[in-house]
Specification:
With 336 residues, this protein is mainly beta. It contains 4 helices and 20 strands. It has helices at 54-57, 68-81, 159-166, 234-245; strands spanning 2-7, 10-20, 27-36, 42-48, 52-53, 89-100, 103-115, 118-128, 132-141, 147-156, 180-189, 192-202, 205-217, 220-233, 258-270, 273-285, 288-299, 302-311, 318-327, 332-335. The chain has a 20-stranded mixed beta sheet that branches. A hairpin with a 5-residue loop joins strand 3 and strand 4 (42-48). It is elongated, with a radius of gyration of 25 Å.
């Protein structure tokens, strides 16, 4: 909606309003746009708003604010319905404040350029609760299913505040999460989450590698990890997973029905136990653990290597597992 000026080679919309949301609680952005009507037609638009109150628009106001997951669902639905423009162009967004989940996203800014099958997002940036910064760029495809492929970075100085906002106080770990900074190349859709080139600093640990999660059906969710770390703190990784995915990896049902993992760590901390020079290559599915190789350089003064298969881990384990224990302090080696 808005006024327009039409010339033989140019259409200008100096006062443009973009409205969305329910009819009784709409929210909108004000801006301007121009369309070049020459041989190489293209458009250029800029939208701004001092503040968007999504808690009122899609929730029930300050007393019953909208959940972040709810807002994400609205965004996905909007992407499904977003038409691909017939001519190329660029849209810029500048929104200083977005009220959602009882808190405020600040300094939301990005440009979107038309691309084959969707939009190319440039210089996306937003300040989330908990002194958390999200930046990224990449391609948003709108069909057949909404998806995103591109580079992202998420860094938080106050993860507990970020977690309380992101999950509404639910799904957070018992152990407080330390400050983190993580980046990588992300591909995400309703059935896929893949991040390669992971470069993360989590609680003083440097983690590199790749993670892939795929949902083939409601009972076939597959997770694969290939991680290298100087120090791998399982409790911290589980806490971060609980925030981002809503479930800890150790919870029943968890985040996957099958897991394939390759982890190499100079030090591994898990359940108040410290292990040194750890390498794990194995897979778990349907109660069966296939261990290609387990190597621990030092645990309580002993070195352990193992491989084999164990079945029925949730009931009475059975299988064939070969292991070697070298106790340096005792000067002996035992084959199990």
């Amino acid at each position: 909606l808005g006024k327009f000026e039409l010339r033989p080679s140019l259409l200008r919309l100096p006062e443009l309003t973009l409205a969305a949301g329910p009819d009784d609680r709409p929210y909108g952005l004000a801006g301007s746009a121009s369309i070049d009507l020459g041989t190489d037609m293209r458009f250029d638009a800029v939208f701004k708003s001092r503040q968007l109150d999504l808690d009122r628009a899609i929730g029930k106001g300050p007393n019953q604010p909208a959940e972040v997951d709810q807002a994400a669902g609205v965004l996905v639905d909007a992407l499904r319905q977003l038409p691909t423009p017939a001519i190329p162009g660029r849209i810029g967004f500048d929104i200083p404040g977005v009220i959602i989940g009882g808190s405020v996203i600040q300094n939301l800014r990005f440009d979107a350029v038309t691309a084959a099958g969707g939009w190319k997002i440039e210089e996306f940036g937003a300040d989330l609760p908990g002194r958390t910064r999200l930046t990224g760029d990449g391609l948003v495809s709108t069909a057949p299913e909404p998806s995103f492929t591109g580079g992202v970075r998420l860094a938080s100085d106050q993860p507990s505040i970020f977690a309380a906002w992101w999950r509404g106080g639910a799904g957070t770990a018992q152990r407080p999460l330390q400050a983190f900074d993580m980046s990588g190349q992300l591909t995400v859709s309703p059935v896929l989450f893949s991040i390669s080139g992971i470069n993360a600093n989590l609680g003083g640990s440097k983690i590199r590698g790749r993670l892939d999660w795929q949902r083939r059906s409601e009972v076939d969710r597959r997770l694969s990890l290939d991680i290298k770390a100087d120090r791998f703190d399982y409790d911290q990784v589980a806490a971060l997973t609980a925030i981002l995915a809503g479930h800890s990896p150790s919870e029943p049902g968890g985040i996957a029905d099958s897991i394939a993992a390759k982890i190499s760590a100079g030090e591994l901390l898990a359940f108040d136990t410290s292990l040194s020079d750890v390498f794990v290559d194995g897979a778990y599915a349907a109660g069966v653990l296939d261990l290609t190789k387990l190597s621990i350089g030092d645990v309580a003064g002993a070195a352990i290597t193992a491989k084999g298969q164990l079945r029925d881990l949730a009931t009475i384990p059975s299988g064939n597992l070969s292991a070697r224990l070298r106790a340096t302090a005792l000067g002996g080696v035992a084959d199990l």
